[in-house]
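Journal club prep — side note

Before the paper discussion, L.F. wants everyone to see what a predicted structure for a comparable chain looks like in token form. Sequence:
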Amino acid sequence: FHGGAVLYLREAVLKAGNWNPALRHYEEIELYSRIMAAGWHLRALDLPMADHHTPALTWGQKLRLSLLPKRWGGGQYGFGQIIAARLKQGSLGSFIRYFPYPFVVMLALLLSIPGCLLWKPAPLFLNLAALLWITCKKKWYLYLVYLGMLIQAPEGIVSYRPFIPSYRLARPPHVEALPEGTGNIDYRKEEGNQNGFNEAGRNLGGDSRLP
């Protein structure tokens, strides 16, 4: 299991593209798959690293969060956002390679449709096979978690918006001017330059007051 308590080399995280802040859930797994795809190796140590305090939920509440869409009390739609993000990046294949579990459940469900036409018990055996495989690799109840990922994936795909960082210089309400001796900065825009500085890094004017 790859959770939120991890230690990464800074170089590995940056080379993999850093965290994706546009994801609501499962951002750890998404970053993990990119780090692995970049050629790094991760190792799990059975040592306490952090205390993770989460609300005490009943099994019914956990199932509702995992299986139901947001409008019905769920909301774990980050898996669909990952699919949308990786499709835009053209790297969905590497995500499937390093996190195949929900896709195995999806494959079993898709094969159940033609399977039931050929042999009525086929859907049962296909999904039992997926459940057995997940039980051997993880834990049996995660089958329900992965099923919930698939149920909520369409909402995540539709709601995904890429994170585009933007920066601006803002003046706090109580600040009227720069302190004396800090230099003169003109924040007016020059054609072809959005930062108020020319290519040499010099400021463009002599007004010491912030806009």
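L.F.'s comment for the group: The chain has a mean pLDDT of 80. Keep this in mind when we get to the figures.
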